[in-house]
Design goal:
The chain contains one helix and 13 strands. By secondary structure, the protein is mainly β. The strands form four sheets. The protein has a four-stranded antiparallel beta sheet, with no helix packed on it. Strands 10-11-12-13 form a four-stranded antiparallel beta sheet, with no helix packed on it.
Amino acid sequence: MHLPLSAGSRSDFNNDGYADLAVSSRRRISEDAWEGLVHVMYGSASGLTNRGAQTWSGLDFKFPVDPDFPDELGAALATGDFDGDHYADLAIGDTAVRYDSGAVVVLYGSPNGITTTRARVLTLATPGLSVTPEDNDNFGEALAVANFGKGTQDDRAIGVGGKIFGDGEHGKGIVAVLYGSSTGLSTIGSQIWSQASSGIIGKAEQGDHFGESLAPARSATAASPTSP
């Protein structure tokens, strides 16, 4: 029987009622270069345990190995239920992919915990986003998960604080928003926001780093009016 995820159990990857923990080692030194790692440990009646613990590196997702441009898997982590199956899923940012243009890995939960079976790697060039990746974009440097309103699944915002656009000035920044669906995060109907977007106050300027940090605002249920 699936247990519904509550606001406090968004990191229960195997839906056993105990929250699990994802830990980043984004700048682990390996053979004189950074090699990011992400570890997952599972909760139990006696607390966190290394039983069934998992570890991934960029090599697991076929990210190129280049000692001059080290991998930073785990630059950001976020959890949510992107496909509505009641197993928490894990999003992993890696800002060092392809000369720091960046990538985000999406891994889905299951009865056995996080699995790579449906793993998906997203970049700015992924169809549906279709933004030209450039050096130092830092796609995935910030991640935020919430239900922004299109459906019952969790959605995800991705910060791209170093993004160049317009006249080529570096670090103006954008935020990409992808929506959840019954099959997981989708680029269908995705949105790109910047300080050049209508309704956002300000002007996109070099060094703004719009999207460098993200935090979804929590919604509150309005109280019923009290009768006099």
